[in-house]
Design a protein that fits this description.
This protein is mainly alpha-helical. It has helices spanning 4-29, 33-39, 41-49, 67-98, 104-107, and strands at residues 53-54, 63-64. It has one domain (4-93). It has a two-stranded antiparallel ribbon with strand order 1-2.
Amino acid sequence: MISRRVLLSVVCGIALTAITALAARVAFNAGSEGLSHVLFWPNSVLQLAVPCNNIGTPFEPICEGTPLNVLAYFGSFLLAVIVYSSLSFCWLRARSSQAPNTSLERTRGR
């Protein structure tokens, strides 16, 4: 059985991925390509892992997209969900361990 904390972490991971992807798209459309790369960093990381197919000159390279780039793009969403879900889980676990224990056994002095 999946615990409530795990389920909440996955929901938070999906939500954070959607928010950062949307914010990156808005930033890119506004002309801030650098901010877009920072906001949706998983895509930037995975696209750097894919080799560049240069169709330009050595002085002005132009990278042509390949099916590997498409695979890296979709994989970046999965990577973001995994990372953000893991961070959410750690945060929720730390938060619950810091909360005072309100169980009946603790309040009765046992």
